[in-house]
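Let us begin with a simple case.
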Amino acid sequence: MQKQFYRGTGKKLMDKSIAVINEATKKFRTMGAPVVWIQHSDNKMGLAEGNPGYEIVDSLVPAEGEVKVVKTKGNGFIGTELDAILKGKGISQLFVCGYAAEGCVNRTYHGALKLNYEVRKVRDATASSSKLLLSIFNRIGRYADLGKILTR
């Protein structure tokens, strides 16, 4: 979730999901599971590295040493080292969340499926600038409820 989109309806929906993301990342860290952050870079969208809009929103804080992947396509696997990083760590199961549910999160979710990852969307941990598109996104795919993730 990048600052460029933290406004209007997107901000309201992000605020709802940020608490869930923070709880999930805290638990994953406690479990010793890696947390990977993906940022979109696109000069036309004001998402150039170094631009304030490119930065992750202040209420989400990557821990020291966590992997950050910079992507230029909707799917976080295209043109990045994400697949190699995950395979290098022996990871076969993914939990995805973030912004924009109907765009980047959805494309990365399907990209992971095509690469044979066991992938779930974290319920209530995605946001969009559109309540309608978020509603449609929430009806598609496989989900993991945070409570069930946290009891593993």
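The second case is a distinct protein. As before, the sequence precedes its structure tokens.
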Amino acid sequence: MHAFTLEPAPGLCEMLQLALDEEEASGGAVALEVKDPVAREQLVLEAAGLLEGKKEMLSTYFGIGLGINKSINRDRDEDEDEDEDTGVTGAAGGGSSNGSSSGIADIAVTSLPRLVDGHTPCMDWLPAFLLELALQVEWDEEAACFQSLALALGRFYARVPDIPDYARPVPRGALGGTEV
């Protein structure tokens, strides 16, 4: 499958957190159910872990690449070095990463499929797409999995950027002029 590389590769956990934040801002059901920050972080880690566990299938059949983001690792190593210098201990980056979740926190979305030549999906919708993959794809049954994943991909690739009201074209005749 043809794919294009995302450079820089966005962090998977960061994208999932952005999606939850957007859900909350728009009154989405998932965010309304999970208001506790610890529960939200747990949801993000579980969703990222699920997708990481499916990365071989996502890559092979759908061209969705997940891998280790070296810049995330480098930033975390620099933060840990700073912490060592100051004598402060704890999770790098201010998060509550522990030994079991540090690998998940390093995962990034490295590539997406090229479904149509010359078309790149609007990256504004990438967080919502990833959250949909984690929460709405039916992973347990093969046919349902492929169908729900294909639908999620289709929705992601069909969405266009939101256009602010001031940038929308004015319909003919709306300004009191006459149509030609």
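The chain has one domain: 3-161. The two ends are 49 Å apart (CA to CA).
Keep these points in mind for the review questions at the end of the chapter.
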